[in-house]
Write a sequence for this structure.
């Protein structure tokens, strides 16, 4: 195979192999991710070059097939948890499994009691149930305090009644909810003894494990096509409504507070602030994702800028052939592209630091030290906002840096942009998050 | 900002605010373009800009009847103050990374160049903030732009290797333009043939809609 960029590679003044380790974070992380990346790339079962020409239904079904194939390969190869998560990462196709592993399982781990975890985690870990994270509602988005879904305790039957009192209380957007998930962690206002105790999490079965039909009182479906040809259209983002659906009392996630058989609301001695740890966890992943998405776009634009030639003073290449100037040699191209390359590295390192911050924060919270929580909360909110906005803008810039060809689906850039840009609004709209940061700064 | 007067020490990423008195008054020491390569100079410029924007917001907030009204009216300024604070975090973490033990031939030098480009480009993009807060002077802004341009030249020969270091397979990248081997044009042509519109030489709809027009 001829390497058209060999000349460029020969000019490097540093050890690329060592830089790969810096980028990966450690030699171990590099070795594992590299092995799994190659495994995925060489397996025709993970082919994705036809995504842009598939219809919505075909795309969705293809994602289902791949998710099942991923599970099969994980078991066949007896992959560790770390290797499995790299495998899902490199398959690079949004499917229900992304939410199941990324939010449903962590929500159980973070909010359920030991006893509840013993019951639900084996089912989730073996994918005998498939879960999603149903917080956002049609009318209120990420404003958690505005959620309208209710969970009213019925002392007579020892059950909670989950109900959607209005159209705007319909759960809206959870990935995997529309057609796949059998269970959901549903966030609802807890009402017991006539008193509203605010939003709490409940584990609710929404589809039969026998025939996959929605259970009585449950209305569930897909919210429709989203921006871009592929991207988020491979996943079934769903709506969900409840008409007085009953669940056993012990399906309230009771790590930090519980309702007794007598309907009494009791707070446990586990600090409530631990729940904020989950938010910090999710946001540090989003920051890491921002560096990955931006680096992919930068990689495409940089390589193509070295391939593409345009105008410029006539000169000869290494074979004495008259050629135009490589686009990458134009200062205007450099001034747009190189800061994005630098940003990709910057976001990578700040993401690495956030990972450390999360571990440090959890240790402090477990020791009942809440002193750093407001600062950590503001800092992760701000960095999520800053990096996702910059990465989304950066991907768009990269596609323009590739000229007209960047607009082709085969450039990979339109789909990358469509898949990444929602990060600017999920887990907190970026501008709202910046206002939270500024409130913290003013207080400081 | 309001708590700084009480003597309570800011922590973590706000620790720089403890030096408010210095940061409000300090003058950037850059005299020539090379001075912009000094990490402490860069850091102080970002800290000065961040705290001056925050203090300005805090002062303006006191002019409103209620904090709520102030927050609402000043929200665009508050967002800018928050952005400045967050950019400072990223800049400081990049600089911290460079202070760690980094192995490999030439690796640290490349990261230093990237760090300089990241910081100087932010200064260039947010010149309004840096100048209006007096964190740097117009002459220093011009020197920053000179240094940024020179960093681009320094980086140029390494950029392909720097993106290779991401270690993305062609499968993961999913891009004809970004192929590792750079063999772009033949592959773009090959991809074009795979489009469903090219399944037939004469398109569906020709007989219904095109032929009647041509025959009229």
């Amino acid at each position: 195979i001829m390497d058209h960029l060999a000349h460029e590679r020969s000019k490097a003044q540093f050890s690329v192999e060592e830089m790969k380790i810096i980028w990966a974070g450690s030699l171990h992380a590099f070795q594992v991710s590299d092995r799994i990346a190659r495994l995925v790339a060489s397996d025709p079962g993970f082919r994705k070059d036809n995504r842009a020409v598939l219809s919505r239904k075909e795309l969705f079904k293809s994602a289902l097939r791949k998710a099942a194939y991923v599970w099969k390969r994980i078991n066949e190869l007896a992959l560790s948890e770390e290797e499995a998560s790299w495998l899902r990462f490199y398959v690079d196709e949004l499917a229900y499994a992304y939410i199941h592993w990324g939010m449903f399982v962590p929500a159980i781990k973070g909010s359920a009691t030991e006893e509840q975890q013993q019951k639900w985690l084996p089912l989730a870990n073996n994918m005998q149930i498939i879960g999603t994270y149903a917080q956002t509602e049609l009318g209120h988005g990420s404003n958690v305090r505005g959620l309208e879904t209710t969970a009213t305790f019925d002392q007579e039957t020892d059950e909670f009644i989950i109900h959607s009192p209005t159209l705007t209380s319909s759960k809206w957007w959870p990935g995997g909810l529309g057609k796949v998930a059998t269970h959901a962690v549903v966030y609802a206002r807890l009402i017991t003894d006539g008193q509203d105790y605010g939003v709490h999490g409940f584990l609710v079965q929404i589809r039969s494990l026998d025939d996959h039909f929605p259970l009585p009182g449950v209305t569930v479906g897909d919210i429709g096509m989203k921006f871009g040809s592929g991207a988020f259209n491979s996943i079934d983002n769903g709506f969900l409504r409840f008409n007085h659906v009953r669940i056993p009392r012990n399906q309230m996630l009771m790590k930090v507070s519980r309702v007794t058989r007598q309907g009494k609301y009791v707070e446990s001695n586990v600090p409530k602030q631990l729940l904020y740890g989950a938010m910090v966890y999710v946001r540090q992943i989003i920051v890491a994702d921002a560096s990955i998405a931006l680096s992919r776009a930068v990689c495409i634009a940089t390589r193509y800028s070295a391939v593409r030639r345009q105008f410029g003073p006539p000169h000869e290449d290494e074979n004495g052939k008259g050629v135009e100037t490589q686009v990458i040699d134009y200062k205007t191209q450099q001034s747009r592209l190189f800061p994005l390359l630098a940003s990709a590295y910057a976001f990578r390192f700040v993401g690495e630091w956030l990972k450390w911050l999360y571990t440090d924060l959890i240790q402090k919270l477990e020791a009942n030290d809440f002193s750093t929580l407001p600062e950590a909360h503001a800092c992760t909110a701000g960095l999520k906002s800053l990096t996702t906005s910059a990465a989304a803008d950066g991907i768009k810039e990269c596609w323009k840096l590739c000229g007209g060809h960047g607009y082709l689906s085969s450039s990979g850039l339109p789909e990358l942009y469509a898949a990444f840009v929602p990060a600017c609004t999920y887990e907190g709209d970026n501008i709202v998050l910046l206002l939270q940061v500024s409130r913290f700064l003013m207080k400081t | 900002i309001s708590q700084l007067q009480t003597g309570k020490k800011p922590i973590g990423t706000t620790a720089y605010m403890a030096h408010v008195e210095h940061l409000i008054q300090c003058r950037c020491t850059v005299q020539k373009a090379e001075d912009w390569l000094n990490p402490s100079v860069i850091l102080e410029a970002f800290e000065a800009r961040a705290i001056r924007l925050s203090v300005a917001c805090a002062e303006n907030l006191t002019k409103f009847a209620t904090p709520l009204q102030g927050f609402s009216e000043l929200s665009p300024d508050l967002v800018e103050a928050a952005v400045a604070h967050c950019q400072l975090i990223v800049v400081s973490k990049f600089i911290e990374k460079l202070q760690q033990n980094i192995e490999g031939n030439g690796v640290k030098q490349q990261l230093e160049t990237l760090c300089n480009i990241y910081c100087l480009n932010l200064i260039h993009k947010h010149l309004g903030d840096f100048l209006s807060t007096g964190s740097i002077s117009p002459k220093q802004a011009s020197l920053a732009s000179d240094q940024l341009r020179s960093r681009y030249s320094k980086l140029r020969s390494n950029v392909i290797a720097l993106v290779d270091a991401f270690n993305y397979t062609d499968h993961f990248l999913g891009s004809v333009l970004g192929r590792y081997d750079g063999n772009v044009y033949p592959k773009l042509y090959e991809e074009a043939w795979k489009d469903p519109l090219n399944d037939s030489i004469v398109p569906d709809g020709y007989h219904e809609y095109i032929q009647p027009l041509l025959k009229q």
User: Anything to note?
Assistant: The two ends of chain B are 77 Å apart (CA to CA). The CA atoms of residues 177 and 184 of chain B lie 6 Å apart.
